[in-house]
Amino acid sequence: MSRHILETARRELISAGLVQHSTEFCRAWLGKSECYLRTLRIQNIDPSADALSTFASKLRYYAERLEQTGESNHLALARLLRKHQKLSEGALDQKARHKWMQPERMGL
Q1: CA distance readout (Å), 83 to 6, 40, 70, 106
Q2: What is the DSSP string of 67-85?
Q3: Fewest CB atoms less than 10 Å from the CB: which of 24, 29, 71, 88?
Q4: Are the C-beta atoms of 18 and 104 separated by less than 8 Å?
Q5: d(CA 104, CA 9)
Q6: Which phi and psi (to 5°) does residue 26 adopt?
Q7: pLDDT in tens, the chain (108 residues)
């Protein structure tokens, strides 16, 4: 599920002109190797908490900067970044809950 979130974000950030290609997205926005998304697809695994956290943090940082300008085109880009920030944070929370909500970790 969270892999789909990153793939959709990559496509939309490329369409918006904020990212040029998958290599840039993986390296600059996820803090991972250039083939990170391809590896997730091939191995059919979800992204790491580190990748989701790094991505959400960068989205938040740039959304804040764009919002401060008040320019309409910047505000539209900020909305796009905020959308993906919320989705990434939601995926990160779901990943964390899955880990700690195991009976042996809940202190029951």
Answers
A1: 12, 22, 18, 31
A2: HHH--HHHHHHHHHHHHHH
A3: 71
A4: no
A5: 35
A6: -65, -45
A7: 689 999 999 999 999 999 999 999 999 999 999 999 999 999 999 999 999 999 999 999 999 999 999 999 999 999 999 999 999 999 999 999 988 887 776 665
* Owner of token pair 């309409």: 72
Residue length of the chain: 108
CB distance 2 to 40 below 8 Å: no
Whose tokens are 């740039």? That residue is 62
Tokens of 87: 């989705």
Tokens of 99: 């880990």
Determine contact, residues 6/51, Cβ cutoff 8 Å: yes
